[in-house]
Protein: GYD domain-containing protein
Amino acid sequence: MVTYVVLAKFTDQGIRTAKESPKRADAFKQLAKTFGVTVKDIFWTQGRYDVVTIVEAPDEASAMSLSLSLGALGNVRTESLRAFSAADMTAIVGKMV
Structure:
């Protein structure tokens, strides 16, 4: 599985309907399942980003399809960060020369 940290900002449309954000998060979890993606956690945040989500996808294509589908709804704009566990990073640095 590939882990991503997804940073999201409300669009003008999304902030106008911010009260619906928890319901949209539930709908996002269901949408993610259609791509084989698991939503590990969702946090609403203060600061530069409005929402931070942790997801696990079977591959990059599934994550991208979910991201495009979410963006097409018009409530948030996202930035996805590929995340590596400590075990992943140990293996990665073990290959360094």
